[in-house]
Amino acid sequence: MANLPKVVSLAWDNREGPAVLATADIQGGPNVIYVGAVKKYSEDTLVIANNYFNKTQANILTGSRGALLFITKEGKAYQVKGTLEYYSDGPIFDDMKQWNSPERPGHGVAVLRVEQVFSGPERIL
């Protein structure tokens, strides 16, 4: 695990629109979804509320790594890659229940542990 570089942490606070989460199934088949309920839990952990992502959840539970793509208000894109975990209870899940919209189910939470960060083709971390 690694911390987000300062420039990327600041960019996260200036992001716009939904993010894109990529996972892979057990055979390596890609799965990509838009996610709107996302939060920086800490400098090394990003979380995504599971409001309706059954296939993504299945991929995480079989060991998929993940990538989260987000764009700033200025149009700069960042991609954060790392290991994924899934929780349906515990402190990270409880935190998600505090900020996830009450109209959304929040079945669980996907946790992305930061390992690599890119901006376009440039590797930042």
Explain what this protein looks like in three dimensions:
The structure is a single chain. The protein is built from three helices and eight strands. The radius of gyration is 14 Å and the shape is globular. Strands 1, 2, 3, 4, 5, 6, 7 and 8 form an eight-stranded antiparallel beta sheet that branches. The chain has 125 residues and is α+β, with helices and mostly antiparallel strands. The mean pLDDT is 97. The chain is 19% helix and 44% strand. It has one domain: Pnp Oxidase, Chain A (Roll).
List keywords for this structure.
Pnp Oxidase, Chain A, alpha+beta, 125 residues, globular, 8 strands, 8-stranded antiparallel beta sheet, single chain, 3 helices
CATH topology: Pnp Oxidase, Chain A
CATH class assignment: Mainly Beta
- How many domains? The number is 1
Strand proportion, as a percent range, falls in: 35-45%
The secondary-structure element order is: HEEEEHEEHEE
- CA-based shape: globular
Please give the share of residues in helix.
10-25%
What is the CATH architecture descriptor? Roll
Indicate the mean pLDDT: 97
Radius of gyration: 14 Å
Please provide the count of β strands: 8
List the SSEs and their pairings:
Blueprint: H1 6-12, E1 19-24, E2 30-35, E3 38-42, E4 45-50, H2 54-61, E5 65-71, E6 77-87, H3 91-99, E7 108-119, E8 122-123
Antiparallel strand pairs: 1-2, 1-5, 3-4, 4-7, 5-6, 6-7, 7-8
